[in-house]
Give the backbone structure.
Amino acid sequence: MNTQFNAIGIATVAIIFWITAQNASGDARTMFNLFLGVLLLSMVILNWSKIQPIFFKGGTKN
């Protein structure tokens, strides 16, 4: 399975969940947004070595 397509699939599902969660009650929406934020942050941290060259040109190449 291609990693790029896998990430796009996960992102699509997360967006659909996020849109659905906006119809939920206040506390549920807050918890879901918090969970999604932590998930996004952890994905960025885990993939930082791949993301970094996009923002900082000429960095270490892997």
Notes: The mean pLDDT is 77. The CA atoms of residues 19 and 36 lie 12 Å apart.
